[in-house]
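Intended use. Records such as the Pantothenate synthetase entry shown here are meant for training and evaluating sequence-to-structure methods. They are not intended to support clinical decisions.
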Amino acid sequence: MLLVKTAAELTAQISELKKNGKTIGFVPTMGYLHTGHLSLVEQAKKACDSVVVSIFVNPKQFGPQEDYAKYPRDLTRDQELLSAARPDILFAPAADEVYLPDSAVRQLRADEKLSAVACGVSRPGHFDGVVTVVARLFDLVRPDKAFFGRKDYQQLRIVQKMTELEKYPVEIIACPIVREPDGLAMSSRNKYLSPEQRRRAPALQLSLKLGAELLRQGKSLAEVKLAVWHTLQAAPETLVNYIEILRRDDLSALREYLPEQTVILAAVYLGNTRLIDNIEV
């Protein structure tokens, strides 16, 4: 695995791979890796000749009161984890390598409809930062396929839309959520949880399973959202950020449950830590 820290060196490495006819798989991350990230690398290695992983904590997708400064960073730890997964290139740039001070980086806007719900309501501007950095990384890596986890479901749909609108020749591969044995979706932010909070955290996934079962039983969307809300609010230190029941493909509002076309999205604060999860129904 080659560690690359500058855009110029990455460009040279990518040009060499392209010259040799290699297909490139790309796994963009913000670091502090876990098994979920490594599963994306595994998928990329199966599908492509060469794999690039990026580690970049993107300042453009954090709001003024969010956790950019304290977001977990440990490049040495991440390199050790990746050494077993064996990607070809680890791109770990500083911010001024991604957003070059002497060149104009396109500032993209996330699709208005896709970003008008769920996380987009409580994190204004967040998805603009996401699509801006993903586009910039696509310009640098020039991947054939890019691998994203389904835990960040809204982000996945927004990146898919951006890729389509910007006409990037990149296939977006949606990969399954990887969970802890007790059901908690793996996330770098899980390290913020105290031992007691960590014990309670699987309630988020359990509440979504309850919501899915109630939908299948014929309960109304309003009844399901209320049941999920009550289940989550009953847990100590838990504040519900949102619960949304939406159409999978375009995150539009539903009037009733549509089997195999519906997703339940939820976000909660457990203490000061924000957790998100979803279930497709």
